[in-house]
């Protein structure tokens, strides 16, 4: 499976988690200003490629959220 673009990944995580950009950055342990540079288009002069650690931090948030959703669904079934 191919990895989505950085911008696609961040946008999808924001939507799935229901967070504002700064909230997502803080929960992932990323300085909001740095996080803004990660969100910029690849051709922007201020764009920065996310290090693997940032990808994993956001993926961990998504994984925890999904596990929580599954537990809630089982509890309500």
What does this structure look like?
The chain has 77 residues and is mainly α. Helix content is 69%, strand content 0%. The protein has helices at residues 6-17, 21-28, 32-39, 52-76. Helix 1 (6-17) runs parallel beside helix 4 (52-76). The longest helix has 25 residues, at 52-76. It starts with 5 loop residues before the first helix and ends with a helix. The model has no long low-confidence stretch (mean pLDDT 95).
Search tags:
77 residues; mainly alpha; 69% helix
Radius of gyration: 14 Å
Task: Tell me the overall shape.
Answer: elongated
* Average pLDDT, all residues: 95
* Strand proportion: under 5%
Structural class: mainly alpha
| Number of strand segments | 0
* Share of residues in helices: 55-70%
Main sheet makeup: none
- What letter string, H or E per element, gives the SSE order? HHHH
Count the helices. How many?
4
Q: Which regions are unreliable across 5 or more consecutive residues at pLDDT < 50? A: none
What separation lies between the terminal Cα atoms?
32 Å
Give the SSE layout.
Layout: H1 6-17, H2 21-28, H3 32-39, H4 52-76
Quick structural gist:
With about 80 residues, the chain is mainly α. It has four helices and no strands. The N and C termini lie far apart (about 30 Å).
């Amino acid at each position: 499976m191919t990895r989505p673009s950085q911008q696609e990944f961040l946008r999808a995580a924001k939507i799935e988690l229901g967070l504002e950009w700064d909230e997502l950055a803080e929960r992932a342990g990323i300085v909001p200003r740095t996080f803004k540079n990660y969100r910029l288009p690849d051709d922007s002069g201020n764009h920065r490629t996310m290090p693997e650690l940032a990808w994993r931090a956001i993926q961990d948030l998504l994984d925890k959220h999904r596990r929580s959703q599954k537990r809630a669904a089982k509890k309500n079934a």
